[in-house]
TrEMBL record:
Function of the molecule: Catalyzes the methylthiolation of N6-(dimethylallyl)adenosine (i(6)A), leading to the formation of 2-methylthio-N6-(dimethylallyl)adenosine (ms(2)i(6)A) at position 37 in tRNAs that read codons beginning with uridine.
Binding site for [4Fe-4S] cluster 1: 47, 82, 116
One matching Pfam family: Radical_SAM
Gene3D superfamilies referenced in this protein's UniProt entry, alphabetically: Methylthiotransferase, N-terminal domain (3.40.50.12160), tm_1862 like domain (3.80.30.20)
MTTase N-terminal domain segment(s): 38-155
S-adenosyl-L-methionine keyword on record: yes
Enzyme Commission (EC) number: 2.8.4.3
Designated name of the protein: tRNA-2-methylthio-N(6)-dimethylallyladenosine synthase
Name of the coding gene: miaB
List of residues binding [4Fe-4S] cluster 2: 192, 196, 199
Record InterPro entries: Elp3/MiaA/NifB-like_rSAM, Methylthiotransferase, Methylthiotransferase_CS, Methylthiotransferase_N, Methylthiotransferase_N_sf, MiaB_methiolase, rSAM, rSAM_horseshoe
Amino acid sequence: MERKETSINELEAAKQLNIITELKARFDQEFEKTGKKKTYHIETFGCQMNSRDSEKISGILKQIGYEETDTEDADFVLFNTCTVRENANNRVYGRLGYLGKLKKSNPDMIIAVCGCMMQEASAVEKIKTSYRFIDIIFGTHNIFKLAELLQIRLDSKRMVIDLWKDTELIVENLPNDRKYSFKAGVNIMYGCNNFCSYCIVPYVRGRERSRNAQDIIDEIKAFAEDGVVEIMLLGQNVNSYGKTLEEPITFANLLQKIEGIDGIERIRFMTSHPKDLSDELIEVMKNSKKICNHLHLPLQSGSSRLLKIMNRRYTKESYLELVSKIRKAMPNISLTTDIIVGFPGETEEDFKETLDVVNKVGYDSAFTFIYSKRTGTPAATMEGQVEETVAKERFDRLLKAIQAGSAKAAGKDEHTIQKVLVEEINAQDSSLLTGRLSNNLLVHFPGDQSLIGKIVDVYLEESKGFYYMGKLINS
């Protein structure tokens, strides 16, 4: 069965590459007549999965013949949307209104909207009725079809809508345009089977499906040959990787295979669900020379009662036991997390349980959110919605606790020499370079831009809390 699916994926990729070639010839002819290249602009909302999708979209558009621009006043504008929170939808509607005005002065402008928001029937209906100037609408499952949808739009001059409820297809062998030449994201799986009661992701990203391990290895080898030294493995729940394959493989075993790829120096991954983080994975991380010294382990709440209502399938006690195992194996690991405040039914006692976990774990940092209803999820209709003023007051207290933990964790590597992957020239001071430690903290230090993309030794002179100031150690 897996061979058949792989064959279908390859056929679909070949079909799309043919369309890209056809469109490129068409655009080349147009360029010969006008002497002007068409431009494109992508606006990405949301998570790293969306950012990775936007790299694929950008790669397709560049292959066709578009040139990227940083303004929405372009020939092709695409919004890659997020829908985790409803205010994200409202932001998109506001920006679409602005695009409508731009299109009035440039009727040939093509506007496309894709991503998670387009998997919601109500959002699509609103766009069809209130934003009729939109040209192309597609979702999360058929990003690879962009060239085909563009071709249909150019030939038909009508709104093109192509939305899939779900798919088994995994089409990866298409152009992509990485933001950085030396690091890359790699999708290892798509979708989610967890159905946390507050989360819309399983409804818009579909059910869990893993990529073939050899396809992942081959992609990473190709990246390594192209100069990539750091890869980020992406999935809604990477710890459950491999379960849907005909020949199951664990995430830990996949990491071991990636560890052996020459040229790859750093391995990161997002996101880990606590209920699926195995002893095998902890052991692999402990013994690895390449897996980064950082683990993002979402908590969401410290109350076992609320965790059950959230359908997280772990308890406060089991979460703390897991953290203890991780810290015993890797004492210096950097732990970060996600926490929701004000979930329906949250009491003061529930919130104190969250504070207790925060104080016991001592996270390096945390993404904290005040709960907001997400239409289409079970939590949106639950009784006991927490008043905004109460949620805000708890949120402020949580931030203070997080910051206290971060302050303790910060600076533990001060006055040591550490490996730093140099990423870019510092945005505020061009005499400085900015790089990242294995634990994901930033380091700013004087240096030449020729070092960008290299891993160098830096002496960490001073901790500034969320970053270090350092000095390059010349080898």
